[in-house]
Amino acid sequence: ANGPSAAAVDAYLTSKLAPKGQWADDPILEECRRRAAEADMPEIEVSPMQGQFLAVLALGLKATKILEIGTLWGYSTYFLARTLPAHGQIDTLELSPVHAKVANENFLALDLYPFPKVHVGPALESLQKLDIPGTEEGLPAHERGYDLVFIDADKERMYEYFQEALRLTRKGGIIMCDNAVRGGRIALEENDNPSIDVTGLRKLYDWVEQDQGKTVLMSGIQTVGHKFWDGFAIATKL
Ligand code: SAM
């Protein structure tokens, strides 16, 4: 019971694994965080190690087209954008014009290139307006679509976001959902009055159960760290 806490381990890993002055240790991020605090934004961004995890995923996939749902001040967007080649594309969807403004200021300060495109408005509406990338350029069918989608917005619409992400992702692409465990509440019995943040998730897991490996293969990974007990649901389109 007196061992190191998950938060202490997270701090240790970050101190070891963030390259000095780069990635999670980029000094400009402090300025970005301050800008977010000045705008009274909640501290609900991914952790530094989760940010680097997203970057590892994107680099491993050799992603050139990335979609994010839920921008906040652009912290996770930063990790994803940093992995892209010059001809890459990153779209990020955000409801709040204030969040979008701060994120755009941060992307300028971080000198991100390609520059992330923030789509302001309810994500479901933005998603429905998005075309499958590569369609206009006439890419062959198997090359059309995002390589990686990160879903991290309002939890109630997790299922709807996932279905839109599936439409927009190429075969073999990855869809990653944050907040997939919610302190274990996901596994409470049905009649335990699930809170609003797990009903959307349950709808997603019920769909995956029915799919039986036809459309996606998904894994659920629990996470601890400097934040509370939660998890990622990570899927590939088959
Ligand atoms: N991905 C960010 C990161 O890790 O740095 C954190 C995103 S934060 C957890 C969730 C964001 O989703 C907030 O900025 C919130 O304003 C936005 N959001 C909430 N409801 C939304 C909706 N219906 N459409 C688009 N964005 C929404």
Could you explain the architecture of this structure?
The structure is a single chain. The protein has 8 helices and 7 strands. By secondary structure, the chain is of the alpha/beta class. It has a single domain, classed as Rossmann fold. A 7-stranded mixed beta sheet has the order 3-2-1-4-5-7-6, sandwiched between helices. Helix 2 (28-38) packs antiparallel against helix 5 (97-109). Bound molecules: S-adenosylmethionine (SAM). S-adenosylmethionine (SAM) binds at residues 44-46, 70-72, 75-76, 93-96, 99, 122-123, 152-154.
Present the secondary structure layout.
Blueprint: H1 6-17, H2 28-38, H3 48-61, E1 65-69, H4 75-82, E2 89-94, H5 97-109, E3 117-120, H6 123-129, E4 146-151, H7 158-168, E5 169-177, H8 196-211, E6 216-223, E7 230-237
Parallel strand pairs: 1-2, 1-4, 2-3, 4-5
Antiparallel strand pairs: 5-7, 6-7
Helix pairs in contact: 2-5, 3-4, 6-7, 7-8
The protein binds S-adenosylmethionine.
S-adenosylmethionine binds next to helix 4 and strand 2.
Summarize, please:
Helix content is 39%, strand content 19%. It has helices at residues 6-17, 28-38, 48-61, 75-82, 97-109, 123-129, 158-168, 196-211; strands at 65-69, 89-94, 117-120, 146-151, 169-177, 216-223, 230-237.
Main sheet specs: 7 strands, mixed
Return the string of H and E elements: HHHEHEHEHEHEHEE
As a percent range, the share of strand residues is 15-25%
At CATH level 3, the topology is Rossmann fold
Coarse morphology? globular
Instruction: Report the span from N to C terminus.
Output: 43 Å
Structural class estimated from helices and strands:
alpha/beta
Output the radius of gyration: 18 Å
How many E-type strands?
Answer: 7
Number of helices: 8
How many domains in all?
Answer: 1
CATH homologous group name: Vaccinia Virus protein VP39
Nearest-integer average pLDDT: 95
Output the CATH class name.
Alpha Beta
CATH architecture: 3-Layer(aba) Sandwich
If strands are numbered along the chain, what order do they take across the biggest sheet? 3-2-1-4-5-7-6
- Heterogens: S-adenosylmethionine
Task: Give the helix level as a range of percent.
Answer: 25-40%
Low-confidence stretches: none
